[in-house]
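*** Query protein ***
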Amino acid sequence: MEITFVTGNEKKVSELNRILGTDFNHVKLDLPELQSLDLQEVVTAKAQAAYAELGKPVIVEDTSLTFHALGKLPGTFIKFFAEELNYDGLCDLLHNKEDRSATVRACIALADQTGVQTFLGECNGTIAYTPHKGEGFGFDCIFIPEGHGQTWSEMDSSVKDSMSHRAKAVRAFAAYLEEQNI
């Protein structure tokens, strides 16, 4: 079965292909995005819309970053928070907060003629006091995974890929494909 990755984010495509050792086809679609703090709900709706538009098996991926001191925020709205506040501003949201802990989640949804399957990956850590330049993309510059002293952007990609939220979701997706002989 040929599966199309629906995303406009080339870095997500590169990371998925690097982790799986594949070369997924991808296409950018302007899809409506459900506004919810429930990551699986957002990804499921997006996958259903992509499948309806293309009429062939698709995967979509989305991410949430939760600052524990802020309840469920920014959560699935992290992209908008980052665009509005930039990464310095995101770090500043936790100014005067003792709790800088955070959880990052990635969810991949596969939509085909049988419905939608979701695959979740999660990683706990903390938010840096200031962004750290380096490799990576998105909030990699502010997220320090549990048990480490560097942000993902400061780490070699192979180290990040061994533990990241996206890598865990990708591996769960790959295991499903293998189990289903896809």
